[in-house]
Design a protein that fits this description.
about 400 residues; alpha+beta; Beta-Lactamase; Alpha-Beta Plaits; Arc Repressor Mutant, subunit A; 3 domains; 5-stranded mixed β-sheet; about 10% strand; rod-shaped; disordered N terminus
Length: about 400
Amino acid sequence: MKALLNTDTKFEQVIAIVAEKIAQLLCAEVFILDHYSCIIASSNPQFLKSSFNYICKHITNNYLQVSLSLNTKVAEVIICQPRNGEVISYRLAQEVVELVTNQTAVIDTLLHQHQLKDKFIYDLLHGLIDEETTLIHYSKILGIDLSPPRAVILVSAADSILSNDISYQIQHESIEVEIRRWANVVIQSVVSFFHLPNDSICAYIGNGEVAVLKASDTKNLSGWANRRDLPEQCSSSWSNLTALKRAARALLTYLQEQTGMSLNVSVGRYHPGIRGLAQSYQDARAALSLGCRFCDRNKVHCLDELGIAAFIGIRDEQTKIELAANLLSPLNHESELLTTLDTFFAENCCSSSTASRLSIHRNTLSYRLDKINLLTGLNPRNFDDAVQIRLALLLRKLSISD
């Protein structure tokens, strides 16, 4: 993310727009001067940085001089009378200058606030702000309510807007404008979809990605949750994840209809506290990267649905252990099934030798494997599923031994 422009640069940008708009409205040549009578903005760029005292000698028609005030800075606007014989009154010139300056300043302020919000959320998600009191202070200033439990949803259009074909068609200086336009469309669509009062919890964070800090508590996910989806305990990082993924899939469908673009969406787990948003972002970032690399595109990606890729691609050991614990959680009170799995893998997934070693009938073993499939959604007879379960069991034992 680029650093925000300093005050002087922002002022120069605003008055350049003001000069152009006044010239268009009054059909006249316009110069804006600083207190040294140096031209700092003009409808005729060739005169920039020149002294108006020198330029005025070559102006054959009369001109009006109107003061311009923007925040704490003051400048003088020179409006040359049109060459077509029409006369601009001082009062009209003054009203046009005030109107254009105020409108431009308001628009620039709104854009500046969006830049501040985007940068704040970027810093928040990347863990670049150390003090939690600072996080709370700036979130209140920017109107971002961080009090509800929140998880990160990432919306990526990198496949579309950053592709070589699109970049070749759009001139380099226009690419950033096109990306910003797309980001605004996505953000407004997210606001509309979730019926939000404003766009404060959405931000464009670069690389063709928009981050959504979605409220992930039961109340805010009730529209996408079944009763069996909502756990009694809300402290777990996997709480309400099923409902959150369902909301993300509905959002993806809606965004594709609104934009007509190829999009990928990823979901991060909920982690407690404001700083937990950075962890949620890391989950979503990893899911997006691995999902786009190893799975289908144009879909919702989440760590618990990446299969073997999650255990191979995730760098954070703790996240792998938590993923393993979540995958095996339906078997927490099924010691018999866990023993069956250990034996099944020790016997190289051979049903006859597993049944013999456990001293049970093969039909009983088949029943237990079916129950494991029903509870976990993974079939131990399937190679990919078996590898996931095996890795999860190993990580589970590792965490217990530690």
